[in-house]
Amino acid sequence: MMDEPSKDLADPRELLAGYLDYYRDVILRKLDGLPDPEVSRVPSGWTPVALLKHLAYMERRWFCWDFAGQEIDDPYGDDGPDGRWSATEPYDEVRAFFLAQCERSRRVVAEAGDLADLASTIGRFQPPRTPPTLAWTMFHVLQEYARHAGHLDIARELADGATGE
């Protein structure tokens, strides 16, 4: 179990990177031990494994495609034909894909020069769109995790009554 970054931490880059890793861990903790992560427990039909797959593609899309400008086949691969998250792969396979994307994102952030560096114009930020900074990108991804951790709180409570972290 990973702890939140230290309350003494003042460097924004370290703070953002630390919280990203913290929330990546939070997501996996909520899924570990979840009975049947491939089963939906909500009216919209999304499954916890599909949410994890969405987060893996979200990492890849924001850091590798948008920020670093890497060529990515199918950057939106997490959406099914109706625009909803979908996953036909087993949880362990999606978990491994998620972990690989997180590591790839960490490398992109580590190789970036400064929080003020702008994203590439390869992905969604082709002119005339204004590319975001690395700081904005990291914060955006962080809020995605915080939001979806709450969704998993609900799914976990519905599945087995577990609450909290």
Automatic annotation (TrEMBL):
InterPro entries: MST-like. Pfam families: MST. It comes from the Bacteria. This is DUF664 domain-containing protein. The lineage of its organism: Bacteria, Bacillati, Actinomycetota, Actinomycetes, Streptosporangiales.
